[in-house]
From TrEMBL:
Domain DUF418: 221-376
PANTHER family tied to this protein: INNER MEMBRANE PROTEIN
Keyword annotations from UniProtKB, A to Z: Membrane, Transmembrane, Transmembrane helix
UniProt source species: Brevibacterium yomogidense
Transmembrane feature ranges: 49-68, 88-108, 114-131, 138-159, 196-215, 236-259, 265-282, 303-321, 333-354
InterPro entries, per database record: Bact_Transport_Assoc (IPR052529), DUF418 (IPR007349)
Superkingdom in the source lineage: Bacteria
Protein name: DUF418 domain-containing protein
Length: 399
């Protein structure tokens, strides 16, 4: 979760926000040294934590499905189709709440929200993991091939260097004005007005998401975090190490197609290596160090941290806050690196303080986690009452 901020921070420090980053990503970066630092600092995290988060989300889905199966073990035996429908009916409130969280986050906090896309993708994958393992593998390969083919076609269409726009063709004027001088409400309205552009990535990554969600679920089932998963973890790290040089080269090409291929094609393979490395660390004493406890605290309330880190960055760089992006456009590299340290430190402190001082039980998960859990529990109780009524009606009719 903190790693995603390493990618998103460049959108905050651009004077024209995400819209400006799509048109002129090198704004405020002039010297060769700054270009090199930007290539490293922006290229290394680019797409890796997005892919890693997708795989972790898939792991969460398979854990939830396994828990649901255990709860249903004592019930009546059902046909596989009926069980799948019951599972999807129980998961639907979670997906709906995640979609609502994402919509609010998109309008009020960050135009690059990922939660809305995860809500749709998660529901698709929830149906797939309830089927046979063979079906899931077929869908994994199909989704991966569709994503790779579509991405290569798109990269061929945009095979041009990334160059700053001229004064006559610069379309970022409105975006720069609203980010530097607009109010909180102005920025929310700007996101709604340009929602087709800002919501393009979840559509572009739908097939990739289905593939990586299923990959994450498969790796979890194969024991990537268990004591006997050592060979699997080593294979993942080898895959990541082989993909990393290609990924770095693509980031330094200066071509829009290279950046696309880095973010959406090579980055998932590097993310596999990161997953293997993290799983390896989790099996050692390093997981019990101070840094390990900090990471665990953030992980327990990842939804709250995701929204809070974007909200804090907005307060630092947008016009409704301190407006640092507009005040220091020529110091973007230094400002970005400092922002990463400040925001990550603040999020770790926020997670530790909340879990130390908050009430026990559900509230300790985090403020947004507690709200989502309460809404999901309410919806689940209503669904259970409805199912009981339907069962009673069917029993009465049969009699």
């Amino acid at each position: 979760m903190l790693g995603t901020f390493g990618t998103n921070v460049w959108l905050f420090t651009h004077p024209a926000g995400m819209f400006g980053s799509l048109v002129d990503p090198l704004a405020g970066i002039d010297t060769d040294a700054e270009l090199f630092l930007y290539g490293l600092a922006a290229g290394l995290p680019n797409g890796k934590f997005l892919a890693l988060l997708m795989m972790v989300f898939g792991m969460g889905l398979t854990i939830q499905h396994a828990a649901w199966n255990r709860r249903q073990a004592g019930g009546d035996r059902q046909a596989s189709g009926e069980r799948r429908r019951d599972w999807l009916r129980s998961y639907a409130p979670r997906a709906l709440i995640l979609l609502l969280d994402g919509a609010v986050n998109f309008v009020l906090v960050a135009e690059f929200d990922i939660l809305m896309g995860y809500a749709f993708t998660g529901f698709i994958v929830a149906a797939l993991i309830a089927g046979s393992p063979r079906t899931a593998r077929v869908w994994t390969w199909c989704a991966g091939l569709i994503h790779a083919g579509g991405l290569l076609l798109l990269a061929a269409l945009v095979l041009t260097p990334v160059a700053p726009p001229t004064a006559a063709t610069d379309p970022t004027g409105e975006a720069a004005a609203v980010h530097q001088d607009g109010s909180f409400l102005d920025l929310a309205l700007f996101r709604l007005d340009h929602s087709l552009i800002f919501r393009a990535e979840p559509v572009l990554t739908l097939a990739m998401g289905v593939c990586l969600f299923l990959v994450g679920a498969r790796l979890y089932d194969r024991g990537v975090f268990t004591s006997h998963g050592g060979p699997l973890r080593r294979r993942l790290m080898i895959i990541g190490a082989c993909a990393l040089p290609i990924d770095i080269v693509l980031g330094f090409t200066g071509f829009a197609s290279g950046i696309l291929l880095q973010r959406y094609l090579t980055a998932p393979f590097v993310a596999l290596g990161l997953l293997g490395l993290i799983a390896h660390i989790a099996r050692t004493r390093a997981a019990h160090t101070l840094a390990g406890r900090w990471a665990a605290a953030v992980g327990r309330m990842s939804l709250s941290v995701y929204v809070a880190q974007n909200l804090l960055a907005g307060a630092l760089f947008y016009g409704w806050g301190l407006g640092l992006a507009g005040r220091f456009p020529d110091h973007r590299i230094a400002m970005t690196l400092i922002a990463v340290v400040v925001v990550v430190t603040a999020m770790i402190a926020f997670a530790l303080a909340w879990q130390t001082t908050a009430a026990r039980g559900v509230m300790r998960r985090g403020p947004l986690e507690a709200i989502s859990h309460a809404l999901s529990a309410t919806r689940t109780r209503r669904s259970a009452r409805s199912d009981d009524c339907d069962a009673h009606r069917r029993c009465t009719e049969s009699r």
